[in-house]
Amino acid sequence: MSAIQPAPAAPKAGLFQRFSRGLPRLYFSFYVALLVVLLLFAMAVLQSWGRSGGPLERSNATLSRVMMNVLAPLDAPHAQQQAALEKVAAGLNAHMTLYTRDWRPLAVVGDLIPARHWRQRGITGPPPESYVRLPDGRRLLSSEPLGFIRPKAALQNTMLMLALVIGVAAFPLVRRLTKRLERLQQGVESLGAGDLTARVKVEGNDEVARLAQSFNGAADKIEQLVGAHKTLLANASHELRTPLARIRLALELVKDNVDPKRRAGLEQDIAELNDLLDEILLASRLGALTDTTQYEEIDLLALAAEECARYDEALLDGQSAVLQGDPRLLRRLLRNLLENAYRHGVPPVHVTIAAQAGEKHGMARLLVWDQGPGIPEEEFERVFEPFYRRRNTRDNSGAGLGLALIRQIARRHGGEARCVLRGDGGSSFEITLPLPSNR
């Protein structure tokens, strides 16, 4: 029997793990998308401004040309440069400084307005309110505004501040939306983990709120259905056991008047019905979402030895494997494996137990096989389905719940049950159960 794939591990709790399976969280995706849109918008505006030139940009270029026409030429003497600058500053009550391309003063009216890199040398003076770069490379600084101050830079700064303000303001809005989605996710996980009373708070009147309402409605229906299912099973088991007891009593009263062969058949039918009721009730309890398993320390080898002693030709081999488990359920697991081997296989039945070490915790490995032909590989998964019966087997009795219970018990203990192929072509049942950590 080739190993079936184990059930997928439950997702680890941890608030979506910041990045679930390598993908950003939802609110992070929303936020990045918003910032990208803002960035593209700002780039589009700046690109359009740079290509066509807005009114501010054109006025600044015009002012630069006017100033060049009014001031003395670049190669004019210092006196001429000074006279032209004083003419420009007349009546403005402004401090002005005219610099060359490499920031050497050509003319000064009032106090020297220092260049930016001069301030690092301790030179102080009035701050410039206007900065005009002439077409020939000269630079004019004024303490009074002469026009618009570097409109392109002002636009860039404005767009940057706008994007920053919108980005900061949008974060709590986006986070509030995704917080509600995270609470909804936690409610779904709680419901899946067995808490049938899990509900989520309905906030707002949007799609997320309607989704929360739908979840709460579905959780109500699931809780009602599970409750009705449990009640039905409990009542059905009680009602069925009563007529079974009456039939058994009636059979005892008339056993002398009934053919022994027929009486034996009736007794076997009653026993099978009683076993079926036990298995259905146990399967229902194991299928319940809440874990009521009573765990204690058990040596799987000792438990297997007790069960093998009840059967002829049951060969046990292996090593001690101490684990935390429910002795009643693990005993039922071993008994069902042995019963299945004797009912459908060929003795002797072999049982081996091994303890395998692991990085975090070890695993106990239980193998059971017989001398029969085994199970075809295409049926490895189906034999664990409830009420599934294989055709053309030596014994077709039983309800078909034994192997389903084995898998449920193994999974309730954090393990797995599967069919695997043996080296000789036969098949065996493999049960893996976690061992407690040594740490």
TrEMBL record:
Organism: Duganella zoogloeoides
Enzyme Commission designation: 2.7.13.3
Places the protein is found: Cell membrane
Keywords for the protein's UniProt record, in alphabetical order: ATP-binding, Cell membrane, Kinase, Membrane, Nucleotide-binding, Phosphoprotein, Transferase, Transmembrane, Transmembrane helix
Domain HAMP: 175-227
Membrane topology annotation: Multi-pass membrane protein
SMART domains: HAMP, HATPase_c, HisKA
GO molecular function terms listed in the Swiss-Prot or TrEMBL record: ATP binding
Catalysis: reaction(s): ATP + protein L-histidine = ADP + protein N-phospho-L-histidine
Name the record gives this protein: histidine kinase
Domain Histidine kinase, first and last residues per copy: 235-437
Annotated TM spans: 26-46
Cited PROSITE patterns: HAMP, HIS_KIN
Keyword rRNA-binding in annotation: no
UniProt entry tagged with the keyword Cell division: no
